[in-house]
Amino acid sequence: MIVNIIGAGFAGVEACSFLSKKGFNINLYEMRDKKLTEAHKTKFFAELICSNSFKSLSMTNAHGLLKKEMEELDSLIIKTAYEYRVPAGNSLAVDRDKFARSVTKKIKNLPNVNFVNEEITSLNDFLKKDEFLIIATGPLTSEKLQEEIIKLAGEKSLFFFDAVSPIIDASTINYDIVFPQSRYNKGDSDFLNAPFSKEQYETLVEELKNADKVLPSDFEEKKIFEGCMPVESLALRGVNTLAFGPMKPVGLIDPKTGKEPYAVVQLRCENINKSMYNLVGFQTRMKWHEQKRIIKLIPGLENAEILRYGVIHKNSYLNFPLIADKNLYSIKKNKNIYFAGQITGVEGYIESAASGLFTAYALWSGLNNRTILMPDKTIIGALQKYTLTQNKNYQPMAGNFGLIEREILNKNGKKIKGQDKRQIMAEESISIIKKFFHLHFN
Ligand SMILES: Cc1cc2nc3c(=O)[nH]c(=O)nc-3n(C[C@H](O)[C@H](O)[C@H](O)COP(=O)(O)OP(=O)(O)OC[C@H]3O[C@@H](n4cnc5c(N)ncnc54)[C@H](O)[C@@H]3O)c2cc1C
């Protein structure tokens, strides 16, 4: 059986490694270094285009837990990352050059992998053949292929940039201050509102103006930026710009004062069980430590924990839940075609590798009458579930505990919280993934 994989990034190589172990013959297509993307600089597979860190190793941190789950599933990326680890405290950081060279060598040495150094500009030939196709071309998919993907998935299914507001852990919000209400009480009270006095608002605007920001790269500034204004840029336009824009209070009455606040930050829930909320209109380029500091200035979010930081950068990704077959994990239109990696709406190096792994597993298990989806009490399975969950505002998602949030009670029926709760969830998740590997991967 032949599988064609386009893109030798994090998702492509992880998929390739899994399918090679299962005996498939693989054609792996990668355009670098004949053609580079706007951010990649080398010809090596799984190039880390920005930070050289795969983030925390702590099991009570979702990134740490995801890596541990991947390790249990025999991930090529995790194994190689440990081989080329550099000192970085409790994080897993790598020597990016040695890491990428090693991944490239390991993949090229696989006996059933045929590497083709070519930019794919048309999908026609693949669609004619009775072979599988995994498209794993990432956030910087080349333009011609983007057009082909639009033909396949539909015009409204491909987004071109990522302008994401920070996401907050719902259990860390102070509900004595933040109140649920929709504007003019229209519809359900799906929004939470953080009310500001004039003084609190002006302090926030001042801090936003002076915040430390990530500077956009040239290609981002030119191509992406219009129509998506970061909150700190709005603050620079004038003291009242935010109060008349994303922070307008009209139609909202604070039940504690019976009055309209001077300004509000609205929070919109991110998932069905309302364990995560995003800050509406707060897309930002502020550095992470600044987001942490400034979000604490929002009334009711003094102790808020950020599950996902805001970002703005070029990122081609699909409205994957709209086009995916929920049973097979292929696309509805054609059961031989799969997408993997950041293009499906996961975000981050390891999340993309995880997506390569669960997509390849879905392809293989579909042919073998096995359970197709990963268990959703694990971070890896919950991420996969996220990519299948319809959402009006589908946006890329990194691994986080909000995805597997549930109530855990102690012997006396009291809710277990914080680190203790995460420790229990992490141990459960590892135990589930070990059983899953034993039962389904072999
Ligand atoms: C500017 C920027 C900075 C980022 N910084 C970070 C960070 O610090 N930490 C983090 O965790 N994540 C970061 N990300 C996200 C990170 O890039 C992804 O999570 C990860 O690389 C995605 O893996 P992937 O396999 O989906 O895509 P990629 O790793 O990008 O791999 C896709 C591959 O497909 C190839 N390709 C594209 N089009 C074609 C074509 N037509 N034919 C053949 N090959 C093609 C590309 O050359 C590339 O090798 C960043 C993203 C961007 C855009």
What tags apply to this protein structure?
442 residues; alpha/beta; FAD/NAD(P)-binding domain; 5-stranded parallel beta sheet; 35% helix; binds flavin-adenine dinucleotide
The low-confidence runs, each spanning 5 or more residues with pLDDT under 50, are 222-227
Radius of gyration: 22 Å
Structural class, by secondary structure, is alpha/beta
N→C terminal distance: 18 Å
Largest sheet properties: 6 strands, antiparallel
Number of strands: 16
Say what the CATH topology of the largest domain is. FAD/NAD(P)-binding domain
Number of helices: 15
Give the neighbour order of strands across the main sheet: 10-11-12-13-9-14
What's the CATH first level of the largest domain? Alpha Beta
User: In what range is the share of β-strand residues?
Assistant: 15-25%
Count of spatially separate domains: 2
* Heterogens: flavin-adenine dinucleotide
What is the helix content? Answer: 25-40%
Backbone shape: globular
| Overall pLDDT confidence | 92
CATH superfamily of the largest domain: FAD/NAD(P)-binding domain
Oligomerization: single chain
CATH architecture annotation name of the largest domain? 3-Layer(bba) Sandwich
